[in-house]
Design brief:
The protein is built from twelve helices and nine strands. It has helices at residues 22-62, 87-118, 123-134, 138-161, 181-192, 233-239, 244-248, 251-263, 278-289, 373-393, 396-408, 412-424, and strands spanning 10-16, 164-170, 201-208, 214-220, 270-276, 295-302, 316-322, 341-348, 428-440. It has a nine-stranded mixed beta sheet with strand order 1-8-7-6-5-4-3-9-2, sandwiched between helices.
């Protein structure tokens, strides 16, 4: 049974992926324009039908003595027999025709919009503008700053948390096979929502195909705030450094690499890395800096600033970002846009205000009216509501909604990335193992 799509509050645009040839792009633009012209033509017809409805409804009043316009009229013997026009019936029929044409016009207009989004007809123009505004050099500044700070943060981390890392296999929740990007994101959301007893815990799934070849999916949750976690706030700075050596020394990367070694991933095995927030930065770091040790075939990041990571084009990257989520922009650079790197960027379309925003503002008061205490409290609640809204847009639920919308518009690039990921997990799911990382001070 096909799952029905329910549009949410996000609208996604797709950047990068396999480019279309010039004839394909021109054909797409031509079809979009033809659909838009057809929609406008139908809309004009709908206007004419509505005018006809108004004129028909006015006929009885304009000719009150005409027996043909009155269903109650009687015929005199010997008089001509009039055919009753029944204006009420005609109005109902015309109303139905007008509504049908309006529905058809709206449907064709929506088809044109979805086709344009699916082929990135409008998105690529937006991408060019954004590149001009942000500049390519901005990311290098962030990397240099992070590199300078990471020396201090790594020292603070060692003093505060300890530098010894322990990695052990633990019992974890049951996860289904990740047969698509959607399912991989669903598994990522389930791991990240398990609570305090499950922090700094990753899942590694092993798939085996008909030829006996193994492939793997490593699922990495985001930052947590526990004192002994290797996936904490201090590690974020090291991960953003422009130095590969500094990135690879981050505790979160050491933890994931240790687990990958422990589970027995070989250099010849295909590996997909899936991460949210800091988990996505860890995935991008391993894809960029551990290519000699592992064959990283696909990386999926959700709400992660990864534009500065030099991931080779042989690795497919699927990045998901939401406009009101500030985290993906912390690297100060747009993601690369090429055949193997796809960015899904979702903007919020809902106009609803967050709870607590419908308060009386200063503009609503007179100059002499003092701000009441309740309004000052309201302002605090509004700020809290805005912050809560930002946190909501960083959640895995919003990242999943953004990806679902990208699939809904029928983006060929998104479908290609989905198929590439599916190929990695096409074998039988043989095992799911969970590994937990903890930091502690050296003993003895």
């Amino acid at each position: 049974m096909m799952r029905q799509y329910s549009p949410g509050s996000l609208q996604s645009s797709v950047y990068g992926g396999k480019p279309f040839s010039t004839p394909e792009s021109l054909a797409c633009i031509t079809v979009v324009h033809q659909l838009e012209a057809t929609s406008e033509s139908l809309a004009r017809c709908t206007t004419h039908w509505r005018e006809a409805i108004m004129r028909t409804a006015c006929l009885p009043a304009q000719a009150p003595l005409c027996p043909a316009l009155s269903a109650e009229s009687s015929h005199h013997p010997g008089a001509y027999v009039h055919t009753l026009l029944q204006p009420t019936w005609i109005v109902a029929m015309l109303t139905e025709v007008a509504a049908s044409e309006q529905t058809l016009s709206d449907g064709i207009s929506e088809l044109a919009r979805l086709l344009a989004r699916a082929h990135s007809t409008y998105s690529h123009a937006e991408e060019t503008t954004l590149r001009m505004l942000t500049g390519l050099a901005a990311g290098f500044g962030i990397g240099m700053i992070a590199h300078g700070l990471s020396g201090y943060t790594s020292l603070v981390s060692a003093l505060k948390q300890g530098n010894d890392l322990s990695v052990r296999q633990v019992e974890g929740i049951s996860l289904p096979a990740a047969r698509s990007v959607r399912q991989a994101l669903s598994n990522l959301q389930r791991i990240g929502s398990q609570g305090d007893g499950y922090y700094a815990t990753i899942a590694i799934q092993r798939y085996v195909d008909a030829k006996g070849l193994a492939s793997w999916v490593v699922t990495i949750p985001g930052t947590d705030s526990h004192a002994d976690t290797p996936i904490g706030w201090l590690q974020n700075v090291e991960l953003m450094s422009d130095s590969a050596e500094r990135r690879m020394n981050a505790d979160s990367v050491r933890f994931v690499l240790a687990a990958m070694k422990e589970v027995g991933i070989r250099q010849s095995d295909k590996v997909a890395l899936v991460g949210h927030s800091q988990g996505g930065i860890v995935a991008a770091t391993i894809a960029a800096d551990a290519q000699r040790e592992y064959q990283i075939s696909h990386v999926i990041t959700a709400g992660s600033p990864v534009g500065n990571h030099p991931i080779p084009q042989k690795t497919w990257v699927t990045s998901i970002e939401v406009d009101r989520d500030v985290v993906p922009g912390l690297d100060g650079r747009r993601n690369p846009s090429n055949a193997s790197w796809l960015s899904v960027r979702a903007r919020t379309t809902s106009s609803a205000e967050p709870a607590g925003m419908a308060c009386k503002t200063g503009a609503d008061r007179t100059e002499t009216e003092e701000e009441p205490q309740s309004e000052r409290d309201c302002a605090v609640e509004s700020d809290a509501a805005v912050e809560a809204s930002k946190g909501e847009h960083h959640s895995m639920e919003k990242q999943q909604e953004a990806w679902n919308d990208a699939l809904h518009i029928g983006s060929p690039a998104a479908s290609m990335h989905d198929e590439h990921f599916k190929a990695i997990t096409s074998g039988t799911l043989e095992s799911t193992r969970h590994y937990q990382g903890r930091l502690h001070a050296a003993t003895g």
